[in-house]
Amino acid sequence: MRRTIPIRLCAVAVAVGSLTAIPLASPSSAAAGATCSKLVSPPPVTVKGVSMSNSTVSGCLPVSATGGSGKSATNLKTFVSTTTWAGGHGTTVEKIAYKATTSPGKCPAGTSHILSTGTVTGGTGAAAKVIKKGDKVTASVCVNTKTSAASLEPGTKYVF
Question: Is the pLDDT of residue 18 over 60?
Fold first, then answer.
């Protein structure tokens, strides 16, 4: 049995968790430290022999803590993701996991529905005052089954 696609899908989902970085995220997640409404995660790349996922989140609130957007780098071997927030607002570090679902949710045809969950393990700057160590991170992600590129499931948010 060939496992390449499921492993890639999981890797992308993990990268998403770094932002990206996580239970189903929904617009009504009032207790969240921060939320982002958009995730762009191209296919993973190999850097010095380690598979990495580099993602961008945007539409992030509160702007005072996130600068409105961030860039995440997720190590797909350790599943540790670091998001660097725009405008010098600091960083958020998360340990993430992912799980493929049996339901497509609102993901379009040609994608797999992945739930990314994690825990904030550290951070710096203004972001660390809002996204605190121990906070849960969630995202519901649609991963392209051919390219492994990922985006948020329509109608959901990345919750930090």
Answer: no
